[in-house]
């Protein structure tokens, strides 16, 4: 700070004419004011940017927490939910080039403010279908809804139901079909997430470069570290918000909650998913307000004006200007500026292909890029469907699942990222050591993941789906298996999903398919009697049943506890390798190609992992569905029941296969590094010259502004664990 004060004094004295007898006093006073203005301005920007990072991380993680809620609310399969999730990356890619090229030349704070408004508009748009698509309707037998008409579940004859009630019910269904036939409200969720991606685009590159341009050089890394720390905190609050909203019924405030006959443990339960998006949208609006009042430029520290260690972008522009003999002074004419920009673009275009060839000719870069793409496919797919896996495999509610992920898993990831950087610094690990640490982290992480195969729960006993009506296993994959002699006299539909739990511990798809002849009570307290299918079961002592599915086996809670422990350790272990892997990427690229290499790296991760992974993971998970819901107008809806064993093998198996393939590429990276290194020096340059990456001055070990723009991508993806 003392150096900064002297530089500010020098700056002031060169631009101010003062009387001789008062120069000392005024110079000192003005220096203090300028110092406070510079530091105050950048700290205000830092606080505003940190809040924006928190807002975008919160809304992104909240979307992950509502995946199953959206699937049930809109009656769509997991594969379509994957498309919705990937639309964020598509929106980001649409304008990333325009923002990166033109953003730095315009008013950066206001562009970030505009991005926040777009991001909030997208978040509000996601919630809008709730207010236009009517109340949520779940499948329930009429007697479980507070009704004055006593109806037998097993309809021997439709005349048992009053004609007026049937006509009224049919009229409602027909009206609903006319409304739903011309609309697919999930499209608004997709478009909203697309807008979120567009709005988020300028925040990272323009915010980080603004800090790097106007902060004192030795403080820049600290400021950026603060921003990234807040970005890691955001997902914690996002999942906790998801946990809170999942406890509330979807139509809270619009319906009488006493009339709701399902509980959060029911697979048809949908929480108030829309409420969290309204909260996240308001936070995004508030986060963008300060940027409209921040200046386009801040006073630049003297150390950054005459420093020979300017950013890579500044060096690049200076060198080009020297070669082209073009002046870019602020007072230059518009024609000269246009001509200069044209020459700059032409020069960039001519250098693009040789740079691309040089980059892809680097075996370390190519192999690490392939390893990262495949590993991110594994991680993104696993993270996207982790809430669904916990809910379906261990019978947990959405609320509890989100609470566990937000309060246990994400802090483990943050601690892992920090530990990786700490290990690198404490032991002064070079490039070869970084490759070993990254490989070891992945290997042991996926090895721990392998143990989760033994920590699953068996399928619940569901008559006609996982067990026969007589209690034998296994069942053939045939919808006709839902019908048996015990319910042959009932007028039942195989498309219904209104589960009841028999006294024998077996779940039946509906009271009708259980052959129940009478019921008592209403709502959640309904009890069914004289259920012929319950009575024939081997372990049956009575023939009654209650509303809702039976709980999973007694061993399942214990397995869930084991899963949590291994999951936290796995998240930590995989995250430790993030920082070393990124350092490996930075130090094995020629200095003038680093920004280009990081741009290609981020683009490849987004296009080849961020977009496709949720889709094909969703398609694979859909293959494990045992019972699909039916839309009111016909057609397949969301899955009601998964095969627990098949889901475990598909979800964990796909994650592990991709992880093992990425490890093979990491081994190849290590092999190439060993081949091109020596015992005396474990560092490596991009062209194979020994010591070129690690024997430079200490300044070269600091990541410049362009590198820091991209480095935030690692933690942001990893915090989704």
Automatic annotation (TrEMBL):
Query: For the Kazal-like domain, which residue ranges apply?
Result: 480-535
Show the stretches that span the lipid bilayer.
40-59, 80-104, 110-132, 220-250, 270-294, 365-383, 403-423, 435-455, 559-586, 598-621, 650-673
Q: Keywords assigned by UniProt?
A: Cell membrane, Disulfide bond, Glycoprotein, Ion transport, Lipid transport, Membrane, Transmembrane, Transmembrane helix, Transport
Q: Name the CDD domains for this protein.
A: MFS_SLCO1C_OATP1C (cd17459)
Which reactions does this protein catalyse? 3,3',5'-triiodo-L-thyronine(out) = 3,3',5'-triiodo-L-thyronine(in); L-thyroxine(out) = L-thyroxine(in); L-thyroxine sulfate(out) = L-thyroxine sulfate(in)
Subcellular location(s): the record lists: Cell membrane
User: What membrane topology does this protein have?
Assistant: Multi-pass membrane protein
The primary site where this protein sits is membrane
Q: Name one GO biological process term.
A: monoatomic ion transport
Keyword Isomerase assigned to the entry: answer is no
A single Pfam family, by name? Kazal_2
* Homology family: Belongs to the organo anion transporter (TC 2.A.60) family.
The protein's name is Solute carrier organic anion transporter family member
Q: Tell me the organism.
A: Machaerirhynchus nigripectus
């Amino acid at each position: 700070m003392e150096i900064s004060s002297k530089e500010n004094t020098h700056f002031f004295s060169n631009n101010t004419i003062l009387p001789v007898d008062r120069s000392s006093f005024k110079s000192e006073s003005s220096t203090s004011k300028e110092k406070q203005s510079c530091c105050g301005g950048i700290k205000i920007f830092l606080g505003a940017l940190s809040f924006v990072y928190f807002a975008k991380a919160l809304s992104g993680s909240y979307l992950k927490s509502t995946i199953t809620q959206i699937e049930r609310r809109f009656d769509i399969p997991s594969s379509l939910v994957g498309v919705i999730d990937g639309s964020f990356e598509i929106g980001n890619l649409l304008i990333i080039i325009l923002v990166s090229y033109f953003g730095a030349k315009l008013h950066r704070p206001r562009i970030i403010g505009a991005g926040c408004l777009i991001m909030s508009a997208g978040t509000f748009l996601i919630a809008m279908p709730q207010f236009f698509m009517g109340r949520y309707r779940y499948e329930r037998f009429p007697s479980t809804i507070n009704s004055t008409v006593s109806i037998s579940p097993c309809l021997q004859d439709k005349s048992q139901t009053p004609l007026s009630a049937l006509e009224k019910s049919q009229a409602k269904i027909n009206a609903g079909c006319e409304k739903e036939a011309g609309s697919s409200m999930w499209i608004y969720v997709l478009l909203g997430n697309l807008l979120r991606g567009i709005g988020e685009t300028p925040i990272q590159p323009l915010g980080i470069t603004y800090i790097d341009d106007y902060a004192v050089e030795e403080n820049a890394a600290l400021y950026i570290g603060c921003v990234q720390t807040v970005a890691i905190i955001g997902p914690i609050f996002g999942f906790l918000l998801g946990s809170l909203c999942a406890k509330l019924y979807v139509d809270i405030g619009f319906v009488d909650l006493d009339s709701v006959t399902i509980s959060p443990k029911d697979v048809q339960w949908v929480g108030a998913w829309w409420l969290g998006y309204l909260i996240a949208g308001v936070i995004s609006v508030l986060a963008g307000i300060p940027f409209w009042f921040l200046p386009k430029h801040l006073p630049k520290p003297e150390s950054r004006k005459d420093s020979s260690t300017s950013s890579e972008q500044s060096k690049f522009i200076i060198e080009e200007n020297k070669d082209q003999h073009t002046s870019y002074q602020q007072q230059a004419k518009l024609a000269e500026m246009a001509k200069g920009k044209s020459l700059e673009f032409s020069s960039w275009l001519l250098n693009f292909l040789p740079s691309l060839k040089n980059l892809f000719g680097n075996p370390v870069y190519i192999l690490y890029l392939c390893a990262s793409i495949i590993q991110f496919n594994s991680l993104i797919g696993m993270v996207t469907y982790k809430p669904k896996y916990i809910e379906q495999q261990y019978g947990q509610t959405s609320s509890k699942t989100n609470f566990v992920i937000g309060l246990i898993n994400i802090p483990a990831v943050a601690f892992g990222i920090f530990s990786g950087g700490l290990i690198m610094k404490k032991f002064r690990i070079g490039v070869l050591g970084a490759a070993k640490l990254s490989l070891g982290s992945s290997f042991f992480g996926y090895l721990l993941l392998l143990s989760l195969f033994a920590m699953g729960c068996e399928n619940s006993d569901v008559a006609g789906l996982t067990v026969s009506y007589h209690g034998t296993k296994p069942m053939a994959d045939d919808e006709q298996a839902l019908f048996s002699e015990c319910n042959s006299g009932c007028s039942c539909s195989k498309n219904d999903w209104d589960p009841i739990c028999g006294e024998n511990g077996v779940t039946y798809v509906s009271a009708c398919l259980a052959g129940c002849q009478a019921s008592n009570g209403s709502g959640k307290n309904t009890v069914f009697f004289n259920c012929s299918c319950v009575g024939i079961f081997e372990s049956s002592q009575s023939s009654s049943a209650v509303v809702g599915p039976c709980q999973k086996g007694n061993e399942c809670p214990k397995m869930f506890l084991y899963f949590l422990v291994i999951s936290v350790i796995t998240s930590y272990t995989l995250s430790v390798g993030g920082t070393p892997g990124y350092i490996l990427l930075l130090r094995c690229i020629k200095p003038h190609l680093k920004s280009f290499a990081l741009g290609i790296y981020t683009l490849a991760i987004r296009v080849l992992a961020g977009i496709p992974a949720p889709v094909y993971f969703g398609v694979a998970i859909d293959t494990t569905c045992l019972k699909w819901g039916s839309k009111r107008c016909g057609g397949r809806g969301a899955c009601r029941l998964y095969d627990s064993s098949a889901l475990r093998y598909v979800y964990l198996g796909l994650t592990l296969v991709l992880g093992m393939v990425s490890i093979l590429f990491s081994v190849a990276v290590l092999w190439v590094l060993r081949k091109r290194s020596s015992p005396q020096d474990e560092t490596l340059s991009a062209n194979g010259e020994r010591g070129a990456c690690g024997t430079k001055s200490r300044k070269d070990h600091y990541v410049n502004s362009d590198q820091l723009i991209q480095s935030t991508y690692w933690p942001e993806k990893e915090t989704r664990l």
